[in-house]
Design brief:
By secondary structure, the protein is an alpha/beta fold. It folds into 2 domains: 260 residues, Alkaline Phosphatase, subunit A, CATH 3.40.720.10; 145 residues, no CATH class. It is built from 15 helices and 13 strands. The strands form 2 sheets. It has a 7-stranded mixed sheet, sandwiched between helices.
Length: 424
């Protein structure tokens, strides 16, 4: 699809905005009915039981989203494929028109680039957690969620004490709380197979770290050096507590992606507070400055840079966070928070505004899911007046139908007048 689009691109002064409310899609909370039947008020229902049988979008008081949806083209999109639960990386790649089955990006690279590290073709990037271990059993995968300031000093110590192992340089990127990233910089360029090493993180406490096993002969050196690295860190932190160990995951090499400018002819700005999303944006050539601030501040930043870019990606995280926590009520509140700020985006009068999520994170499932994601595309040349609001059930009635995520970018370009006719 990108190859076809490239031959149809034409320039104009139009602006396209993608507001991505992470994990937006949800499911109705049904268990509350059983709890209420027993005489106990459910955890999310007020006296009026207004959340019973509703999704988070349906339960939210979101008049601006609902009003805009009536005037927009609505539908549902599938990030990867039917029944496949996507991670955040594939979910966002699909939104930007990159087939996630073709262009897979490792989480280590996403984390490293998001923390401001440059990833080269000689590098393997790894996501790391400080952890607590006792008698070779992990007692806390996140080392008690220590302060970011404290762990910055620990990571600086690692950089000073372990800068190189067996001719491979180690470059560290401190993250938030217990998280950090490491780049292993080899003397030569690497093939993707060099990163085929499993995670050491067993994803639960009470278990031993998983042994690092290469899944390809080209990954044997990577695994061996990483084992030495973990051993040296454990020795260095043996007197520290609770951060006396590290878990490694997401081994990955530099992807070979066409840039966003090359693919679509758009100068793009990404505004995201979380490193991973900045990292993804940078990998496809978007400008993604380090940014920390509220959603309202993200919009103000977009406004201040409005004349310098054609495409704006704004990331809204907390809908996903509370979905993963299983906190239905707080996810509803975050939808309402975004709704209140929506008029500030509309005041900029973008030719195209797409509002959607990268995947669904139903609070009832406490995690990402395979369910299609609600989406609206607001532009002058849509049918509109098909739906009565913005929700999963209403979007199912919309003119877009159920489409693959990669279809959203061509639709946005067409509605922005940036695609010529195909054929004579």
């Amino acid at each position: 699809m990108q190859t076809t689009i490239k031959g149809l691109l034409q320039k104009n002064g139009s602006k396209i905005v993608f507001l991505v409310m992470d994990g937006l899609g949800g499911l109705p909370y049904k268990g509350i009915i059983e709890r209420s039947a027993g005489g106990t008020e459910g955890p999310f229902a007020g006296p009026d039981g207004r959340f019973i049988g509703k999704t988070e979008l349906e339960a939210a008081h979101a008049p601006n989203l609902d009003k805009l949806a009536v005037l927009s083209a609505c539908g549902l999109h599938i990030p990867v494929g039917p029944g496949i639960t996507p991670g955040s990386g594939p979910g966002h790649l699909g939104l930007f028109g990159y087939d996630p089955l073709k262009w897979e990006i490792g989480r280590g690279v996403l984390e490293a680039v998001g923390l401001g590290l440059e990833v080269k073709k000689t590098d393997i990037a790894i996501r790391c957690n400080y952890a607590t271990i006792e008698n070779n059993v992990i007692t806390d995968r996140r080392a008690g969620r220590p302060s970011t300031a404290k762990m910055l000093k620990v990571t600086e110590r690692l950089q000073k004490e372990i800068p190189e192992i067996d001719g491979v340089k180690f470059i560290y990127g401190p993250g938030m709380e217990h998280r950090f990233a490491v780049i292993m910089r080899f003397p030569e360029a690497l093939s993707p197979e060099a990163a085929m090493v499993n995670d050491s993180d067993p994803q639960m406490e009470g278990k031993a770290p998983l042994p690092l096993i290469p899944k390809h002969p080209k990954a044997e050196r990577t695994a061996a050096i990483t084992r030495k690295f973990i051993g040296r860190v454990e020795e260095l932190l043996k007197d520290s507590h609770p951060e006396n160990y590290i878990l490694v995951r997401g081994f990955s090499t530099h992807p070979r992606l066409p840039s966003f400018l090359e693919a679509y002819g758009l100068r793009a700005l990404a505004i995201a507070s979380y490193p991973m999303y900045r990292g993804l944006a940078r990998l496809i050539g978007m400008e993604a400055p380090d940014f920390e601030g509220s959603f309202e501040e993200e919009i103000e930043y977009m406004k201040a840079n409005w004349n310098d870019y054609d495409f704006f990606f704004i990331h809204f995280k907390k809908t996903d966070s509370y979905g993963e926590d299983g906190n239905f009520a707080e996810k509803v509140k975050k939808i309402e928070e975004a709704d209140k700020a929506l008029p500030c985006i509309l005041a900029l009068k973008p030719e195209v505004l797409v509002i959607t999520g990268d995947h669904s994170t139903p609070a009832v499932m406490k995690g990402h899911s395979w369910h299609p994601v609600p989406a609206m595309l607001h532009a002058p040349y849509v049918l509109g007046e098909v739906t009565e609001g913005f929700s999963e059930r209403q979007c199912l009635k919309g003119e877009l139908g159920i489409i693959p995520s990669v279809a959203l970018m061509p639709l946005a370009l067409a509605n922005a007048g940036r695609l010529k006719k195909f054929g004579s």
